[in-house]
């Protein structure tokens, strides 16, 4: 490697110490010199910014060094392309990962500051919808912690996931203006600008040798500007980079309005092109075919690939070594246009022969599928594509043509198969199947849990499985234990570390050392006390925000996730109503607080109706003296990463009750179990693997299996049979239907009743109801034996090692990316 550039080697930098005194000094300096505030008038927000600057400057040197060492070691880099990164807050994460938590607290105390209040000033970075976006965030944490040269690439949305307000029981969406006060974690790179073309037309011509060449001309151009965010690993010198792109009008706009003199029109156009990165799409299923969303996808893919190639070409010529030095992971199909774009760059711009370019492309890309739901599989109408990306459409046609030639060669007598495998769906208008493009253009395709991967092979991608039996593999999801145990649950992590040391933070399997402690009465008491403290903390928040008093000794029964019919929040509601009816009839139950949280897509009316139902049921039950506080229902508004960090540690029971075969993996299930909640769940997604790890005796299973579900459909499912056969079920459904919970509008919930009865109950709630209710009975019975419950709860924590995203990332690194950890030399 070349010598260190003189300017860096000789630059004078002030080494930043981690001791409390220097941190205190940084805080004071930033308040005065960066924020320009007098401590007398400084607000909590001013102190938050001071703290953020003090923390981030303790990362930047390592960040620069990490980038330098990747360069010097010519490391293979991993690029995680994702439309979503659900990062949450950063301050605590930065402080914990750099190991200066204690000293930070001391420094704040030294200044008479309330660290907790200041921490809460930070807005969540909510650049994602749910599971898929949060997984990307956990993966960045794990890559940095493991020393894998991993880069996140995405979009710097000006508005993230909407804020959910509950008004009169209804969800109301409010814009998430998270950048309003500036973002102390981002480093704008105004010099890192790439041109992104849209629209226009393709000109064919022949080069000197008579080969056909293509020019994409008369385009409308937008510039992508980079913003960088440090991603510190835990207890390591490694600080990786996340680069998000913001849309900027191209300079042409300036020229054009000077020339044309139509200033207002020019500024309007400028605005329109900058709208590209304005807002995150808040739908995680359906609502496809939106032009702006396709433009967002190409926008960030195009900029990211240019950036990746600039970096590659700094020390490699051409493209031949690309697959040895670069792995690109496509987080769902959203960035899969990258396959056509890389082909365009090589074939059109660098004159690489098609076959050679295709070999390089397929060895570079890999694709992760996150859903089996047919309505969430992306397809784009050919006409829309042709308008926005005319050259890419031609390239996709060419990819498809060559692919189908191979298919026809191998399966000459099966034209049905050709149509099923084609990248172009000709059945309802002509549409591009992005999943097919992603599979054809990748060397590996993965599902996110064993069952999900098996179902991919058996159902939606069965034809591809037949064609390429080694392409589809499993990578069971994971979560970062740094955020989801150490940061979210300081009480439990301190207790664990006191008994087994701190090794679990980087090697989660060490939690197994807790197994013998499950039989230690003293440990159980301490463990139970931590859980109670966490419940008390949540109870206080519920009281403050919702004015509902909940009993911290009641069972905290938690279902927190996006509101979707397949996730079956309604099944939970049916159980709540059943308990309520039993109480009214003079029965008894273990005191329970049923906690819901989650957002509905703004256009998903049935999901919004479910939110209103939960709130109406809560109103009736919480105010019915007959219940005498033995049952409470709480809907916590605005479920986001920060609210998850508050709710997860306080849960006793985790509801993971999707219809078998519908939830690809789930990751909330892992967070809750890692924090000592017992799961009531179906044999779906990663639930199956969690149950396997923690032991069936420590897990409450109910409901139909995937096979039973298919058999029931094949035999003919009639929800009315269940309605008529079960009096408690009928009573609960009738109460919903007849307006018991909506006396002001008795028709309000009829569509819910209808969906579950004459609508055919597509998610089989009625079929699983009896099994669910019975299972909830055994949950109750165990909760009464509080010591036995605590024991199982400890055993859950002890067996969650597999679900660290560190394990997931090592598997990706070895089985898909061929990437190695790189050590960043210590100071
Ligand atoms: C799909 C779409 C469809 C078009 C409109 C915009 C949009 C935005 C996001 C998505 C992806 C939804 C898929 C998703 O989040 N899947 C979840 O992924 C988790 C991580 O693998 C997994 O644990 C959950 O089970 C799965 O539902």
TrEMBL record:
Alphabetical UniProt keywords: Carbohydrate metabolism, Glycogen metabolism, Glycosyltransferase, Pyridoxal phosphate, Transferase
Enzyme Commission number(s) of this protein: 2.4.1.1
Gene Ontology CC terms, in alphabetical order: cytoplasm
Pfam families: Phosphorylase
A single BP term in Gene Ontology: glycogen catabolic process
CDD domains: GT35_Glycogen_Phosphorylase
Essential cofactor(s): pyridoxal 5'-phosphate
Alphabetical list of NCBIfam families matching this protein: P_ylase (TIGR02093)
Task performed by this protein: Allosteric enzyme that catalyzes the rate-limiting step in glycogen catabolism, the phosphorolytic cleavage of glycogen to produce glucose-1-phosphate, and plays a central role in maintaining cellular and organismal glucose homeostasis. Phosphorylase is an important allosteric enzyme in carbohydrate metabolism. Enzymes from different sources differ in their regulatory mechanisms and in their natural substrates. However, all known phosphorylases share catalytic and structural properties.
Name this polypeptide is given: Alpha-1,4 glucan phosphorylase
Taxonomic source organism: Sulfuritortus calidifontis
């Amino acid at each position: 490697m070349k010598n260190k550039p003189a300017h860096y080697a000789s630059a004078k930098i002030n080494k930043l110490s981690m001791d409390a005194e220097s941190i205190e000094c940084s805080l004071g300096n930033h308040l005065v010199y960066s924020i320009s505030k007098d401590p007398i008038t400084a607000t909590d927000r001013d102190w938050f910014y001071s703290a953020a600057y003090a923390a981030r400057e303790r990362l930047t040197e390592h960040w620069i060094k990490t980038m330098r060492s990747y360069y010097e070691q010519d490391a293979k880099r991993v690029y995680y392309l994702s439309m979503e990164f659900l990062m949450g807050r950063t301050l605590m994460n930065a402080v914990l990962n750099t190991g200066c938590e204690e000293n930070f607290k001391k420094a704040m105390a030294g200044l008479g500051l309330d660290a907790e209040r200041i921490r809460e000033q930070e807005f969540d970075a909510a650049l994602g919808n749910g599971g898929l976006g949060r997984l990307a965030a956990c993966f960045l944490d794990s890559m940095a912690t493991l020393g894998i040269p991993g880069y996140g690439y995405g979009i710097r949305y000006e508005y993230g996931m909407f804020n959910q307000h509950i008004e009169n029981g209804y969800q109301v969406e409010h814009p998430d203006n998270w950048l309003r006060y500036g973002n102390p974690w981002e480093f704008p790179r105004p010099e890192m600008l790439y041109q992104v073309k849209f629209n226009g037309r393709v000109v064919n011509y022949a080069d000197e040798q008579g080969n056909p060449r293509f020019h994409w001309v008369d385009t409308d151009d937008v510039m992508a500007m980079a913003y960088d965010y440090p991603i510190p690993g835990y207890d390591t010198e490694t600080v990786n980079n996340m680069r998000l792109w913001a849309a900027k009008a191209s300079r042409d706009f300036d020229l054009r309005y000077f020339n044309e003199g139509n200033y207002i029109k020019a500024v309007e156009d400028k605005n329109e092109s900058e709208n590209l990165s304005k807002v995150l799409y808040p739908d995680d299923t359906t609502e496809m075919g939106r032009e702006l969303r396709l433009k967002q996808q190409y926008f960030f893919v195009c900029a990211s690939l240019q950036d990746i190639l600039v970096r590659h070409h700094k020390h490699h010529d051409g493209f031949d070594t690309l697959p040895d030095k670069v792995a690109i992971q496509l987080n769902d199909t959203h960035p899969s246009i990258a396959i056509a774009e890389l082909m365009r760059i090589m074939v059109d711009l660098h004159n690489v022969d098609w076959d050679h370019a295709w070999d390089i492309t397929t060895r570079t890309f890999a694709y992760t599928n996150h859903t089996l739901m047919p309505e969430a599989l992306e397809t784009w109408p050919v006409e829309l594509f042709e308008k926005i990306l005319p050259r890419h459409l031609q390239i996709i046609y060419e990819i498809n043509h060559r692919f189908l030639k191979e298919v026809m060669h191998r399966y000459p007598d099966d034209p049905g198969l050709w149509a099923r495998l084609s990248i172009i769906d000709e059945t309802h208008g002509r549409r591009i199947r992005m999943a097919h493009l992603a599979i054809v253009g990748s060397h590996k395709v993965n599902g996110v849990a064993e069952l999900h991967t098996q179902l991919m092979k058996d159902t939606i991608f069965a034809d591809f499985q037949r064609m390429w039996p080694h392409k589809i593999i499993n990578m069971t999801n994971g979560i970062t234990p740094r955020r989801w145990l150490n940061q979210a649950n300081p009480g439990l992590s301190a207790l664990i570390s006191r008994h087994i040391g701190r090794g679990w933070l980087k090697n989660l399997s060490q939690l197994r050392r807790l197994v013998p402690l499950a039989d230690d009465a003293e440990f159980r008491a301490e463990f139970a006390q931590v859980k109670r403290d966490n419940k008390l903390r949540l109870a206080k928040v519920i009281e403050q925000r919702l004015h509902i008093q909940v009993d911290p000794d009641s069972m905290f029964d938690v279902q927190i996730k996006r509101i979707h019919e397949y996730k079956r929040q309604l099944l939970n509601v049916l159980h709540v109503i059943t308990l309520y009816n039993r109480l009214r009839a003079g029965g008894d139950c273990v005191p329970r607080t049923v906690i819901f949280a989650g957002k509905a897509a703004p256009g998903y009316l049935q999901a919004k109706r479910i939110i209103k139902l939960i709130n109406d049921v809560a109103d009736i039950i919480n105010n019915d003296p007959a219940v005498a506080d033995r049952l409470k229902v709480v809907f916590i508004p605005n479920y986001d990463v920060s609210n998850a960090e508050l709710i997860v540690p306080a849960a006793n029971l985790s509801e993971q009750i999707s219809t078998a075969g519908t939830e690809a993996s789930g990751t909330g299930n892992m967070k809750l179990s890692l924090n000592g909640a017992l799961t009531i769940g179906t044999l779906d997604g990663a639930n199956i693997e969690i149950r396997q790890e923690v032991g069936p005796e420590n897990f409450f299973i109910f409901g139909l299996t995937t096979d039973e579900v298919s058999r029931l459909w094949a035999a003919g499912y009639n929800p009315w049979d269940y309605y008529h056969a079960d009096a408690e079920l009928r009573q609960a459904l009738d109460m919903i239907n007849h307006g018991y919970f909506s006396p002001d509008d008795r028709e309000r919930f009829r569509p819910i009743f209808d969906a579950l009865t004459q609508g055919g109950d597509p998610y089989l709630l009625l079929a699983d109801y009896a099994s669910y209710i019975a299972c909830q009975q055994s949950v109750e019975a165990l909760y009464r034996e509080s010591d036995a419950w605590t024991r199982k709860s400890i055993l859950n924590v002890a067996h969650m090692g597999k679900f660290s995203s560190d394990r997931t990332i090592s598997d990706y690194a070895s089985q898909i990316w061929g990437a190695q950890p790189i050590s960043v030399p210590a100071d």
